[in-house]
Amino acid sequence: MSRRKKLYEGKAKILYEGPEPGTLVAYFKDDATAFNAQKKAVLEGKGVLNNRISEYIMAHLNRMGVPTHFIKRLNMREQLVREAEIIPLEVVVRNVAAGSIVKRFGLTEGDALPRSIVEFYYKNDALQDPLVGEEHITAFNWATTQDIDDMIALALRVNDFVSGLFAAANIRLVDFKLEFGRIYDQNEMMRIILADEISPDSCRLWDMESNEKMDKDRFRSDLGHVTEAYAEVARRLGIIKEAAVVNLDEAKS
């Protein structure tokens, strides 16, 4: 890792220059943050689990024809991804009332929404990632109307697939955050692709029977056993055999 050029460090990942032009190496950290990084901790093994879970989901999406930045997992903490021009928006798909939508509309947490709702948030920590509409997005040139249509279509397609994937593991996909980027082919034709990660850091995941939280809300709400919950998600998906076992020695290689 020390021989690579570090390009960017975020809250949960570090991006390094990739081995080939147009590629990056994403390193998954154990750092956990909440409330715009006002709350911080290091949760040993979290990065390993997020890397494995995101690899599993992204590989499935690639196989079904959803364009993503994921190429392959390199080791327990790193994956090779395509370099993309990241669109400065977080795209949130909501299936069940939870989080900020409960406060905004006076809903009851856990109520099913009439249909899946797609929301856009401007990625800006200093402004606390404000909710934005299509007029803001196009006026400030963050994305075009066609980009927005493409992101919504991809987000709903991902939602359908990932909801089913988790449901088969007795997990409800309450809501989740996606990020998208632009890549250009040799003819300078632009395509929108799915970027970042899909993991318990970016999803709200509840056990279907008990409604027990199995995601980052355990950290936000001081529920404890965060990495154990992530490991249980990985176990149910068939990624690891035992929820309590994460090979941290291998992860540090």
Question: Could you walk me through the main structural features you see in this protein, from its secondary elements to its overall organization?
Answer:
This protein is an alpha+beta fold. The chain folds into two domains: 105 residues, Phosphorylase Kinase, domain 1, CATH 3.30.200; 122 residues, ATP-grasp fold, B domain (D-amino Acid Aminotransferase, Chain A, domain 1, 2-Layer Sandwich). 28% of the residues lie in helices and 32% in strands. The chain has seven helices and 14 strands. The strands form three sheets. Strands 8, 9, 10, 11, 12, 13 and 14 form a seven-stranded antiparallel β-sheet that branches. A hairpin with a 4-residue loop joins strand 6 and strand 7. Helix 1 runs parallel beside helix 6. The longest helix has 23 residues. It is globular. The chain starts with 5 loop residues before the first strand and ends with a helix. The relative contact order is 0.16.
Q: Give the biggest beta sheet.
A: 7 strands, antiparallel
What's the overall geometry?
globular
CATH superfamily label of the largest domain: ATP-grasp fold, B domain
Secondary structure class reads alpha+beta
* Integer tally of domains: 2
Mean pLDDT: 93
Give the SSE string. Answer: EEEEEHEEEEHEEHHEEEHHH
| Unreliable segments of 5+ consecutive residues | 244-253
Question: Which percent range fits the helix content?
Answer: 25-40%
Instruction: Using the 3D structure, state the CATH architecture of the largest domain.
Output: 2-Layer Sandwich
CATH topology category name of the largest domain? D-amino Acid Aminotransferase, Chain A, domain 1
CA(first)-CA(last) distance:
10 Å
The percentage of residues in β strands lies in 25-35%
The number of distinct β-strands equals: 14
Radius of gyration: 18 Å
- The CATH class of the largest domain is identified as Alpha Beta
Individual helix count: 7
